[in-house]
């Protein structure tokens, strides 16, 4: 095996495939990256049995071949190589990497112990890469972190005729984002383990952190092709592919939770409110709430109480309905405000201790922007 490739191209390919490297594994070979050179291309891939990442770059492949080397060590080597062409040669049980007078010898891992890469599912549609990355970030923030409840650590993807809906919840908040996509004719939604039917398409649950990482990495690809099969989701774009195993189970539906009967509605500027939440939360205990008092023409933020440290700030706001108040986990409220992009935020409130629905508005008097909502459970007995 012998090939030559520009340092930048090698570093980019290794960095992409390195996304699949596990932090810790009882199987050392899963910490390896597989390099395969043939027909003027170098492909680099990695996987940890749950997620895989693979890509290819142009290379001068003088002698075809394949080798498995420690992925994190290769990442480190690529970071310190000087600019210029990199010459890589398989020398027995080693891969020699040379560039600009610098030479490394990397021990080859046993290929026979490396599991086969998972097959990439059949593509079922495509969508804008940047829009997908933004939408995943806006919903993944509400996913759970408790691995003992795996389905709550996922993002649900609902496939419909021309829209794709992302949803995530940790039981205390629920984020939903809708975006356009282009399904391929004749491709039906998958069914089976980890899926359920949703409208005219299907529904699957994908690990939130894995999906967020892949979507962000592909944000500049222009178009992302979504591939689905029983048990696996794939994302393809810009010559790179990522696959991840679906999570078994069904994430709760949001439609009934989002249907509020006669709520009070408050509209305020989003950015100043987000800054005010961060400001007053400085005095809140770890689990201390931030209270928002909504009245005609303003809202008052307060944190702390009694003999403890306190903070408050008043902001202008428009209220439709009776004066009311609600208390929130400040981190959850800050996450929701940060995920919204519109200049104004609309609160739809049922009352203290009940659920509150947040949506964006382009102007204070305009309609709410469809496609992105964030539900928060207000804290009970919090003032």
What does this structure look like?
It contains seven helices and 28 strands. By secondary structure, it is α+β, with helices and mostly antiparallel strands. The chain folds into three domains: 2-113, DNA Polymerase III, subunit A, domain 2 (DNA Polymerase III, Chain A, domain 2, Roll), CATH 3.10.150.10; 123-254, Roll (DNA Polymerase III, Chain A, domain 2), CATH 3.10.150.10; 260-377, Roll (DNA Polymerase III, Chain A, domain 2), CATH 3.10.150.10. A ten-stranded antiparallel sheet has the order 15-16-11-12-13-28-27-26-20-24. Strands 6-2-3-4-19-18-17-10-14 form a nine-stranded antiparallel sheet. A hairpin with a 5-residue loop joins β26 (344-349) and β27 (355-361).
Count of discrete structural domains: 3
Quaternary organization: single chain
How confident overall, as mean pLDDT?
92
Determine the CATH topology of the largest domain. DNA Polymerase III, Chain A, domain 2
Q: In this structure, how is the largest beta sheet organized?
A: 10 strands, antiparallel
CATH architecture of the largest domain: Roll
Shape: elongated
**Amount of beta strand:** 35-45%
What is the H level of CATH, i.e. the homologous superfamily of the largest domain? Answer: DNA Polymerase III, subunit A, domain 2
Tally of helical segments:
7
In terms of per-residue confidence, which ranges show pLDDT below 50 for 5 or more consecutive residues? 191-200
Question: Spatial order of the strands in the main sheet?
Answer: 15-16-11-12-13-28-27-26-20-24
Roughly how many Å is the radius of gyration? 25 Å
Helix content: 10-25%
CATH class categorisation of the largest domain = Alpha Beta
């Amino acid at each position: 095996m012998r090939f030559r490739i520009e340092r930048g191209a090698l570093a980019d390919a290794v960095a992409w495939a390195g996304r699949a490297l596990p932090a810790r594994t009882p199987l050392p070979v899963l910490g390896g990256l597989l390099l395969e050179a043939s027909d003027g291309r170098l492909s680099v891939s990695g996987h940890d049995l749950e997620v895989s990442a693979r890509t290819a770059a142009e290379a001068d492949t003088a002698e075809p071949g394949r080798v498995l080397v420690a992925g994190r060590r290769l990442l480190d080597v690529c970071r310190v190589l000087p600019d210029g062409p990199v010459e890589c040669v398989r020398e027995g049980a080693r891969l020699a990497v040379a560039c600009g007078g610098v030479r490394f010898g990397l021990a080859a891992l046993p290929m026979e112990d490396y599991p086969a890469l998972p097959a990439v599912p059949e593509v079922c549609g495509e969508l804008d890469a940047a829009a997908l990355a933004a939408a995943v970030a806006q919903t993944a923030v509400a996913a759970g972190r408790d691995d003992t409840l795996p389905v709550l650590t996922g993002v649900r993807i609902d496939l419909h005729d021309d829209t794709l809906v992302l949803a995530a919840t940790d039981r205390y908040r629920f984020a939903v984002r809708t975006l356009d996509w282009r399904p391929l004719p004749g491709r039906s939604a998958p069914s089976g383990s980890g899926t359920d039917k949703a409208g005219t398409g299907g529904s699957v649950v994908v690990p939130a952190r894995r999906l967020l990482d892949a979507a962000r990495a592909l944000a500049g690809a222009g178009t992302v092709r979504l591939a689905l099969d029983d048990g696996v989701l794939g994302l393809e774009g810009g010559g790179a592919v990522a696959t991840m195993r679906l999570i078994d189970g069904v994430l709760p539906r949001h439609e009934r939770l989002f249907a509020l009967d006669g709520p009070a509605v408050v509209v305020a500027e989003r950015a100043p409110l987000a800054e005010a939440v961060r400001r007053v939360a400085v005095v809140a205990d770890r689990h201390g709430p931030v209270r928002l008092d909504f009245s005609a023409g303003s809202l008052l933020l307060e944190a702390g109480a009694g003999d403890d440290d306190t903070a408050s700030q008043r902001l202008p706001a428009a209220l439709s309905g009776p004066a009311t108040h609600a208390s929130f986990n400040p981190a959850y409220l800050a996450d929701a405000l940060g995920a919204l992009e519109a200049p104004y935020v609309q609160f739809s409130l049922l009352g203290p201790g009940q659920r509150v629905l947040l949506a964006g508005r382009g102007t204070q008097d305009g309609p709410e922007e469809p496609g992105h909502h964030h539900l928060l459970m207000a804290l009970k007995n919090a003032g």
